[in-house]
Structures are given as structure tokens and as C-alpha cells.
Amino acid sequence: MQSLRESVSPPHGNPEVSALYSLAEGGPLAQEFAISDTSAVQPETRYARSGAVWIAYRVFGEGPFDVVFHPGFVSHVELMTEMPTFHGRIVERLASVSRVIVLDQRGVGMSDRVGGTPALETRMDDLRAVMDAAGSKRAAVFSISVGVPMSVLFAATYPARTSALVLGRGFARELWAPDYPWGWTLERQRSVVRAYQMLFLQSRHAAVAEVGRTIAPGYSDADLTTFAARPPARARSRRSPR
Description:
Elements: H1 2-8, H2 15-24, H3 28-31, E1 46-50, E2 53-60, E3 66-70, H4 79-82, H5 86-95, E4 99-103, H6 120-133, E5 139-144, H7 147-157, E6 162-168, H8 186-201, H9 204-211, H10 221-229
Parallel strand pairs: 3-4, 3-5, 5-6
Antiparallel strand pairs: 1-2, 2-4
Helix pairs in contact: 6-7, 8-9
């Protein structure tokens, strides 16, 4: 792990890459999310071929270095920047200092639907395919949640293509086990699923009541109204080259 950390750490004194760590650590840049508005930033949705699957991605900004942003297990490369929510603010702020490549993992958002759970190696190849399609030879990889293990594997496999790793809310596994007491219980996981259903199908207030303030605060009532007015994500994924 030490050698991996050393191989992908940014050079000392690099202000652009330091900004990424400020985001992950809740620094001054992270505090600016609330004042951002991403509604005017709408680049073309592009697709990278990875095996038999098309992976959706978008490119924001024209900064001096590349950042690949993996938003987590739920994402939509178009909706995230049409609404001033957490992911959209991250993209906008990163695009002010870098060229940002944002992708939907396979089976999610604008990417092709798949059956089963893709292996880490498969998802790692998806990320590489997106970088290749976007013309990115080397990038800082910024991942949240389920993107974290895959990004660590990518950095270990392709250290020459990884300039930095920024990892947020990662975990080795999700559910509790005798040797993993930090995981969620099955009851907790089901509660979170119910909260997401309430968040998008009922109201933010119902979601808060279900699972507390761990999910719903990232979305305002206006955000949810905007979500409800948009075509379903599945309908908006049919523009892939397939």
C-alpha cells in the first residue's frame, strides 16, 4: 500500500492536484459547493466501447490535468449537472481547475444495462476504455462509494496512468460480518433502500423520517421536483450506439 501511495501521490507544490485532496478532506473548496449552479454546463454525452457494453461519459472543463470522476453506485451523467446537487457541484468545481471526465458505470444511468454484478476487473476495464476514448493518458481518479475498490485496483494495475487517487466513503464490503463490524446490518441496508424509494417516489421528509439525515439532505424539494419532471433514466439511455 505504501508503494502504491507513493506511485500515485501528486508532486509536492502542485496546487491543482492539492485541490482534489481539499475536496476529499472537506477543505475550503468543498465548502463552496452550496453556492454553485451547474445548470448551464451541458457538454455532449459520449460513449466508450468496453467489450460488448457502451459506457456513457461526459467531459467538462479544459484544465491543465485530467480527473476521472466515478460518482458511486447511483449516477446519471446528464441529470447530475441539470440539478444543483452534490455530484453536479463536484463536477463544476473540479472543472474550474481541470478537465473532468465523468462516467456512469455499466448498468447505471446512460450506460448500457447489464445482468448480474460486474467484477472489479470488468469495471476497471470500463474506466480504462473511457480514458482511452476521451484521449486521457494519465488522470487523477476521484471515486465515491462503490467506485473506491475499483479505483484502487486500477491504480495498482495502471500506476503510470494514475496521477492521484481521491477516495471518499469507500468500504471493503457493505454488510456486517463477524470480521467486519463496520458494515451495515441487513436491516439497515433495507432501511436505506426504503429511504431512497421514499426520496424519489414520495418526499424528502419521508426519507428523513425513515433513515435520518444520511441521504435526503443532499437533495432539496426543488431538486426532487426537477427529477420528477424529467423522462425516466431508462428512456434517456437509449441514445447509446447500440
